[in-house]
Amino acid sequence: MNNNYGDEFLYKNRPPVREEFANRLYQHISNTTKEGKNKMTLRTFSWVWRFATVMVLLVAMLFALSTGVRASVLEWIKMVAGFNVEERAESPLKGLDEEPILSAGNTPVPTLNSTAQMIPEAISPTIYPVTTAPLTQMMQHPPFEFGWPQYIPEGYVLSDNAGEAQSENWVLISWGNRDGAEIEMLAEKSYSGYNIPAGIDSTQEVQVNGKPALLIFGFWGENHTWNPKLSVALHWQNDDIHYTLTFWSRSKTNGVIQPIENTETVADELVKMAESIQ
Amino acid sequence: MEINRIQTSEKSALTIDMDWREVYDQLLPRVFHFFYYKVGDVHIAEELAATTFEKGWKSREKYHSQLGAYRFYIFGIAQKVAADYFRKRHPEVRLEEAYDLPDHQCVEEQAERHFDFQYLANLVERLTERERDIISLKYGAEMTNREIAKLTHLSESNVGTILNRAVVKLRQEWEKMA
Fold it and tell me: What is the ipTM of this complex?
């Protein structure tokens, strides 16, 4: 303490900090910090899963372009609501599990031969990095015009991150709620007819504003096998834009995808969102 | 060997936790007193101190080896919180315009110590804004003149002059009461 000014009274006559206040505040800020860390973890998981979704899509596109492979699996491909659905018992990403190849920059990197040998002939997936940017930034310069749902289920908040393909052919936007559930909307410039991978007997045709739409129940889970409770996805086209709404629910503690209790209710909500697109 | 390594790692983690609690215990009174001298009210000072820690606590790990820098960072936040408070919710009203100092009857009704706190806060509130800012940083945040100069962008000698003038005024009033 500095007593040069005869200022001791200015130190002595300050009210003490109430102990109860100090302890409660410490508890509060400690908890807030922990929640923040959990949010970061969930966000990280979130983008990992988004990336996985995009990988599925890209592999599917390449699969469709490979004539040899296409011929050998034609019997698995069926058309639902105008989309080519390729029903598979196992995830198309199974072969990539041990050695994922990612491009570090803008140039795509072909997979190594050793990886390609583990998956069906001629499939040599090329994976592009997903560019993410603040939503506001993406909205200032959207790669193409697309609609926004006017209806969002209660409790869901728009994420401030958006994904955008380097090809500028699609964008990814998401909403999340406090319970770890997430709805992603992928808007693609146009559907070129590629195969959409799905589990066996996992699809259903529904109507979105009187037009056919494709519902897919499930996603590949452990050991790359299809789990009909892991996700619900709705595909439809509007003004040439191909939209996909996908619902996930993740554990709040570790970010792992949890089975959905009532997939039919989720499907109804996704259709409602789809019908509100403007 | 492996066990030893784990134990060492756990010990380090515990030490870090303890340090941050200590930092908090050391900083909270200073932040609280800083606001107390700024606003002259215990409850508002608690509220503003809480806001400051809510804003500044998350970033503490960036200052792991620089506690002095973290303290400075916290008081940077505290200054903004105080400025927001006066701008949004508490238009500047000089004490003498708002109400008089407590009268004798009031003194008799209150505990002596509580009166001292309140009386001193009221005296501080009579100072000019700049004097009050510097008194808050010196006797609330317990900063050195050099630190105050850095934070307020005044010269160290200027800080000393303002402090001296303010303390003389306060002491004269304080001694009258005594």
Answer: 0.72
Q: Do B24 and A26 touch (CB under 8 A)?
A: yes
Cβ within 8 Å, pair A25-B53: yes
Q: How far is A1 from A7, CA to CA, in rounded Å?
A: 9
Does any CB of chain B come closer than 8 Å to the CB of residue A40?
no
The answer, yes or no, to whether residue A113 has pLDDT greater than 50, is no
Do A14 and B36 lie within an 8 Å CB cutoff?
Answer: yes
Q: Is the pLDDT of residue B9 over 60?
A: no
Whether residues A14 and B171 touch (CB distance < 8 A) is answered with no
Which residue in A2, A3, A4, A5 has the most chain B C-beta atoms within 10 A of its own C-beta, making it the best mutation to test that interface?
A: A5
Q: Which DSSP helix (H) or strand (E) runs through B33? A: helix B2-39
Does the beta carbon of B112 lie under 8 angstroms from any beta carbon of chain A? no
DSSP alpha helix (H) spans, chain A: 8-12, 19-65, 67-72, 113-116, 135-140, 263-275
Nearest to A228 by CA among A265, A198, A197: A198
In whole angstroms, give the CA distance from residue B132 to residue B87: 16
| Segment B29-45 mean pLDDT | 90
pLDDT digits (tens, 9 = 90+) for B116-153: 777 888 888 888 989 999 999 999 999 989 889 988 88
Question: pTM of the predicted model, to two decimals?
Answer: 0.44
A15 in contact with chain B, both atoms CB, cutoff 8 A: yes
The 10 Å CB-count burial string (b at 16+, else e) for B81-93 is bbeebeeeeeeee
